[in-house]
Each structure stands twice: as structure tokens, then as C-alpha cells.
Prior knowledge:
The complex is a heterodimer of chains A (153) and B (296).
Chain A: E1 2-7, E2 10-15, H1 22-29, E3 48-51, E4 54-57, E5 70-72, H2 85-92, H3 102-115, H4 121-127, H5 138-149
Parallel strand pairs in A: 1-5
Antiparallel strand pairs in A: 1-2, 3-4, 3-5
Helix pairs in contact in A: 2-5, 3-5
Chain B: E1 7-9, H1 14-24, E2 28-31, H2 37-42, E3 50-53, E4 63-66, E5 69-73, H3 78-83, H4 85-90, H5 92-97, H6 104-107, H7 112-118, H8 125-132, E6 135-139, E7 149-153, H9 154-157, E8 158-160, E9 163-164, E10 171-178, E11 184-191, E12 201-209, E13 215-223, E14 230-231, H10 233-239, H11 246-259, H12 270-292
Parallel strand pairs in B: 1-3, 2-3
Antiparallel strand pairs in B: 4-5, 5-10, 6-7, 6-10, 8-9, 11-12, 12-13, 13-14
Helix pairs in contact in B: 10-11, 11-12
Amino acid sequence: MQINVTINGTGETRDVESRRLLVDFIRTDLGMTGTHIGCDTTSCGACTVLLDGKPVKSCTVLAVQADGHEVTTVEGLGQNGELHPIQGAFKEHHGLQCGFCTPGMMLVGASLLENNPSPTDEEVRWAISGNLCRCTGYMNIVAAIQAAGGDGS
Amino acid sequence: MYPSAFEYSAPGTLDEALSALGEAGDEGRVLAGGQSLIPMMKLGLAAPGCLIDINGLSELSYIRESNGDLAIGALARHADVAASDLVGRTNGTLAAAAPWISDPLVRNRGTVCGSVAHCDPEGDWNSVMLAVGASVVARSAAKRRKNRERVIPIADFVAGPFTNSLNPGEMVAEVRVPKYRGAAGGAYLKLERKIGDYATVGVAAHLALDAAGNVAEAGLALTSVHQHNLKVTEAEALMAGQTPSPELFAEAAEAAARSCDPESDIRGPADFKRAVVAEYTRRGFAAALKQARGEG
């Protein structure tokens, strides 16, 4: 069926099979590979995107369910060649090692900061508890999200 | 992993959705949050021929008081329940369980009614609903008006592992939770290896007191320690009318440990789980009592 999805502010119209997963629609049909596929079983959060502003696991949403909705991927964080504050903070605070979980971590972090600009350690850890970092780099991920919420330093 | 092909529709009204569900017969499944259904379809454990997506029916996303009950609509997400002041004020068991459903991303998408309908014996919500004496409102597009809505007590709704008592063409439109009469409290204690894992053990406790401070109503149900969510009627019965005390809660805990039938698996040996059931039952009722007395 034909769907129209607003990805990072741009409307995209495509014909998709009803069983197409949102993550494959993004990666394969739209060629945006910043959204990763990790476990493919709703566990790891590597495929996290924002659906109407809320983080969800795109391996567990059908592309047809995004019809008429807004999706934000990691490619939508930076604007006009400038890093988003959360991207700058991940760079500054070594919030990534291998980088596989990073898009999901940054999107969850950005979503948290929208509602809570100064989260405690506990609040950040709770927010990212559906996203796994196999490098176990959580200390710096938490520090980066908190820094992005403060003065951006 | 990919689901088998299916027909998809996203009706604009509940009536349209019910008609589509009725026409689809055995092949039809309602798609709400999809956080259990889509993984099961990807794993080949479910292959419905027809999905009816109700995510467009925002009128079903309510959490409200209705004739003295707490009513949760088919599209209310776990995160909505966790954030609900009304739930926090009126039902300690639900409020305690909501933040421990899966993980934050799944809670943004998954629904309470979907989870109740799914009847996963390791699912948390049906233990909560068994403890608080909830009912399921099933709707359909039946020809006769009086057959279009059935209110099913949760104990009758849960027919077995992954099996509910809906008829073809019916969907869970709402879960109704009786509002506590007088002083009451509740808790849900969940032992899990990590966020997002199923419970190793889950215990839902509910306690309502009469004017004299004795137990007017006790509810107790267990997750992941039986082939389905287990309502511990023996414990509920022995507590009724009694004065709440640590000794009474210990008796209930013994009954709970006796009633359950855990398996030894990767989450722990059976005797360990049984011990956790007993301890969490004691703690759950102690927390419920504090809440009922306005102490915490």
C-alpha cells in the first residue's frame, strides 16, 4: 500500500508491503542507514527512532503504521551542518566507543531532555534502560546526555 | 525475521474496526501496540491473515473514572498508565506495576488491553488484574445489539497460556478496575534479571480495609511461577475479615508458596522462586497496608 511518512521533516511517499518493518523502510527503501538493526527482537534499542517525538523500537513497528506520522532518525538531529547539542556532547564526553548503540542513545537522550533539561543520573539511566551498549560505556553516555541538557558544554 | 504476508487495514472508527474484525473471522487480529504481536509474527509463532490496526482510534486511549470504576481504553499505553495521576491516586497495584512493564520504549507503544488480551503467563498485567478483581469489556459487531458488549471477569477471561476467552470477532475494548471502597492499597513486586526481561517472579497484592481496620478484601496473584497468571484464592480467603498483621501476611505467603508451581530455568531454581514468592507476598501486603493506612 502507499504510505506517506514525514522523515526528519521531509515527506516521503512509497509503496510498501504491509509486512515491511519500519526499520527496513528507513534503511532500505529510504537509504538512511544511521538507524541500526541489532537484536531484531525488541530488546537492544539499536533501531530506536522517534515516532511523533517518542522513542520506539523500529524493528517492532510496521512501516504502514507510520503512514501520516512523523519519524525522526539520527540523521535528523543535526541541522544545517551543525551538530545537535547531544551529538556535540557525545563527541566531547566520549559517549561512544563502537558507535552501534549511539543513534538510539542520542535519540532517547534528546527526547528525555525535551521534557527534562536537567535529569539526574537515575533519570537518565531509567530513560536509556531499553537501550543496550555492548561496549558497556554507560558512564560516559549518561555524562554526555546530562551535559547536552545543561549549558551544552 | 519477517512476518508472513497479511492484509492490513486501519479503520477510522471503532464500528468499522469491529466490522472488519467480524468479517475476518479466525484470521483477524487487532493490532494495538504490537509489542508482543509483531515479535510473535516475526518469529513465526503467529501468522494472522488480517491485521486491523486501531492506532488511529485516539478515542480509545482514555484512562478515566466511569461509574465508580477505573476504565482503561484499548489504546492506553503502558507509559500513559505509568504517568497517570488518576491511577496513582486510585490504585496502588496498577501504579506500582506500570513502570516495570518491559522497558521505556516498549511502554511508549504497548497497551494494557493488548497485554491483557495476550495472556502471556509471564506478563505482568494479568496478575495485577487478577489481584484487583478487574473485568474485561469485549466488543463486537454482533447482529443483536445486546450481544455487542460482554463484561468478562478477568478470572474467566484468562483461559490458559496465550489463550483468552474472546469469541471470534470480539476485541478487548476496555479493562475496568473496581475503585477501592474505603481505605485500600496495593503493590506489585517484580524480580527481573534486567530491565526488559520477563519477571523471574512477580507478585501483585491488593488490600482493602473495613471501617474497623480489618481486611475487607485481599487480592493476590503471581507472575511467571505457574502455567498461567495465578490468583491465590487460598490466601485471599484466609485473610478476609482478619486483622492485618505480619503473622497474617506470613500465612498468606505460605499459601502463595504452596500454590505456585515454578520451573527451574535460566532465571533460577524452583525452590528459589518459591522463596521469593513468599518474601514478596509478605512485603507486598506490608506495603499495601501502609498505603491503606495512609502511611506511605
